[in-house]
Amino acid sequence: MLRAAIALLLLTVPALAQERLLSLGGAVTETVLALDPGAALVGSDLTSQFPPRAAALPKVGYLRTLGAEGVLSLSPQLVLASADAGPPAALRQIEAAGVRVLSLPEAHTPEAALERVRLVGAALHREAEAQSVAAALRADLAQVQADVAATPGRPKVLFLLSAGPGAPMAAGTGTAADAMVRLAGGINAIEGVRGYRGLSAEAALLAEPDWIVTTSETLRGVGGTDRLLAGPGLAATPAGRARRVAAFDGLYLLGFGPRLAQAQRDLALALHPGATIRPLPARPWAPPS
Q1: CB 5: neighbour CB atoms within 10 A?
Q2: What is the pTM of this model?
Q3: Which of 6, 212, 232, 286 lies at a C-alpha separation of 20 to 30 Å from 244?
Q4: Residue 46 burial (10 A CB sphere; 0-12, 13-18, 19+)
């Protein structure tokens, strides 16, 4: 009886010793839960919607417009924040209250995504799990990249994104959308523009995209494919005339989280219909490919 009680205590102590953790950024939260499904997460921001446990966490507001009071009300001991979490004044106020804040760098490349896994693993003292997840992600990325490299043709892709009311913006260079299009074997149809910009009818026609790619959230926000193609000049583009529009969950496609290889494969299959792009192995943190 005593031996059983001691064994139960030994199993319980590590869980009790875990820091109260709050994560800011959907891909950060997803990475935390890929490394430690039982992590002592007390909350997250509104962009943290996958896996289901992340969606069910108490929310402290939108990633870029956080209030220190909401974060501190959950009494975290450690805050893991994506590069675009803010405003900076709120993060400084959280730190001033005695909470450790670790700001993680942007991850718009496979190498940066792998580095984020390592950094989160170090912060959680889950180095072994981080090595395992990173090794699997690296192998999956290599497989998809080999298949994409063997696929003929490089379609021109116009990526449209909306973060609120108003017409969607076109993604230029230096964006997660641009990086993902290139990883999937496409060419960004918007040249010479950095970041996101409004799209005129003339620019859309000059871009001559073969595909229009967007997020599911953007497509719902504008009212569906017909409304999207009613945007300036889009219906007259090669993509618009053929109604070649592909939409994906925003966090999945642009988060560069643990599901990066799966997202790369899905976009590549959309841009290259009929191409041979092999299924990926099942991973605990990703749906079957």
Answers
A1: 9
A2: 0.92
A3: 286
A4: middle
